[in-house]
């Protein structure tokens, strides 16, 4: 059972910076070039209880389930139950980029991003949510979760539920019939722009092998003015949202005002392969991302396992997720994880600051101070186009009917009292 810790006092001025951390070292040797990933047909042939999930067999899961299982048709029988406790509270003096421009936020258990919700394919997930906000109702939406036979757990006030009133609580409960990476967020007005948001991982098989899962890497725009204030301004001005003041990667970043703040850092060991779960949790921004010297092997698009492909850059719209694998095969050093803003459909005050937007990939043994000096051969996109559909090929083939014969609708007589 997993259980989140209680929130700190409402006047806390610190923010924990999410859950991105290097996992415990694995005993297996790093994957080599000869560790080719099997085809769909090969996986089907060996899909049995002896096929378990290891660094060299990520296509497997357990008990006859694997990456070739169509999770829209079936999922593992009931697994364990994982439980989380959320308390949503008002917090003052929040300053995640060190700019000195503190602002009010609404946080889950006093942290930003909110606590990681993690379960395994087939598990039952329970989240107890208590609303400690002074004036707002709330409701938590579990983004992308199918909610098969549990639509009342979808967390959308006004559609599937009434808002959770201040001082009240409710329990969400659903089965993890899919696997992959997603996020949860408030679906009450502009609330998630003020901090009620966090990552969610459903562990399962994958379409490429890797040694270590680095976890979720949420990327968002950041405003120095609370979202509720900006929402009112946008509605009355009829101009839409203003330009964000910064971005945050896993809840932190440097700023364009002073030398404070810090970049998020991903720690790796040379010779190993790492899975990174990219999430765009922004309010109004499209992002493109790349990693100097480290191309991405793309495993999933949202909750859909795809035939893996290699690219040097990915574009994420709001709410989109891509799981990627990188190979730590470069000289021991620090490298930029670069983020660009889709200026074709938005902008950002940090673009012209002269400071790099992004995070740091840190090799064990490299300098622990200073910024990377790596260079990029990639021309970062500013467009807002999705990835090419030719790359996003589901691993499990599903045939779409070429024609549909509608079922006849039986006649119905409507009479009125005369």
TrEMBL record:
Catalytic activity: 4 hydroquinone + O2 = 4 benzosemiquinone + 2 H2O
Enzyme class name: oxidoreductase
One Gene Ontology MF term: hydroquinone:oxygen oxidoreductase activity
Cross-referenced InterPro entries: Cu-oxidase-like_N (IPR011707), Cu-oxidase_2nd (IPR001117), Cu-oxidase_fam (IPR045087), Cupredoxin (IPR008972)
Isomerase among keywords: no
Regions annotated as coiled coil: none
Domain Plastocyanin-like: 99-205, 218-366
Any one GO BP annotation for this protein: lignin catabolic process
Keyword Acyltransferase recorded: no
One Pfam assignment: Cu-oxidase
UniProt entry keywords in alphabetical sequence: Copper, Glycoprotein, Lignin degradation, Metal-binding, Oxidoreductase, Repeat
Cofactor(s) of this protein: Cu cation
Highest taxon, organism lineage: Eukaryota
Sequence segments annotated as region (Disordered): 399-418
TM segment ranges: none
Biased composition (Low complexity): 400-418
Family: Belongs to the multicopper oxidase family.
The protein's name: laccase
